[in-house]
Amino acid sequence: MDKLKKSVLIVAPHPDDETLGCGGTICRLVEDGWSVHWLIATDMACSENYTSEQISTRQVEIEKVAGHYGFTSVSQLPFSPAKLDETPKRLLICEVIDLGY
Q1: What is the pLDDT of residues 54-69, one digit of tens each?
Q2: Helices 17-31 and 52-69 meet at what angle, rounded to 10?
Q3: Cys-Cys link to 12, which of 17, 30, 34, 80 (CB 3.0-4.6 A)?
Q4: Boundaries of every domain in the chain
């Protein structure tokens, strides 16, 4: 590999979409030494449709998945899972830019 470490950003609308969409690729990239970052576009805490227990359980699941894959970083955007399709794309883009990706 080059002196510069290669990195990739995996963007998932919801947790588990990364695995369904490219789980094998994630494993291969991590195995090959890439810096793999996971960006989840939604956060259950931003919706009134979920209990605190559901939110807590989801966070534990996210941490477990991140540990299994070996992600370099994990970030979540502050958008409601049920309303992501209503979110203006410019807001999504601005949030990603603010994170430094």
Answers
A1: 999 999 999 999 999 9
A2: 30
A3: 17
A4: 7-99
46-52 own/partner pairs: CB under 8 Å, 24+ apart: 46/78, 46/79, 46/80, 47/80, 47/81, 47/82, 47/83, 49/80, 49/82
CB-based contact 91:83 (threshold 8 Å): no
Query: For the whole model, what pTM was predicted?
Result: 0.89
| Chunked mean pLDDT (size 10), the chain, 101 residues | 79 96 97 97 88 94 97 95 93 93 77
Q: Cβ(41)–Cβ(11) under 8 Å?
A: yes
DSSP letter string, 26-49: HHHHHHTT-EEEEEES--GGG-TT
Q: For residue 18, how far is the Cα from the chain centroid?
A: 7
Q: Hey, what CATH topology would domain 7-99 get?
A: Rossmann fold (3.40.50)
Number of helices (H), then strands (E), in the chain: 3, 3
